[in-house]
Amino acid sequence: xxxxxxxxxxxxxxxxxxxxxxxxxxxxxxxxxxxxxxxxxxxxxxxxxxxxxxxxxxxxxxxxxxxxxxxxxxxxxxxxxxxxxxxxxxxxxxxxxxxxxxxxxxxx
Length: 108
Ligand code: TYC
Known about the structure:
Number of helices: 3
Largest sheet: 3 strands, antiparallel
Distance between the termini: 31 Å
Bound molecules: L-tyrosinamide
Helix content: 25-40%
Radius of gyration: 21 Å
Shape: elongated
Order of helices and strands: EHHEHE
Number of strands: 3
């Protein structure tokens, strides 16, 4: 569509001026979740939250304790590709350090 003709089909060369909705679809969003386990050290989970989810030490500790007490907790909400990258980064980092930490994504 020609610049400056948002919401019409003018400029498409059809000779018609049919009104269409502006193409501003909100992207689907995905929650990235951490799952509790009995073996991953608390400090490692706090470090993951600081490093990959840009949480402050206080926020990271709060989220880690929520996961520890409730079994699951939200680290952040992202578009599909960003969420997928975060999950891969966390799973690779946990595996490198031989911790069983699990990270998953779910559609909001
Ligand atoms: N439950 C773990 C422990 O007691 C800590 C932990 C918290 C592990 C959050 C995973 O996603 C997790 N060491």
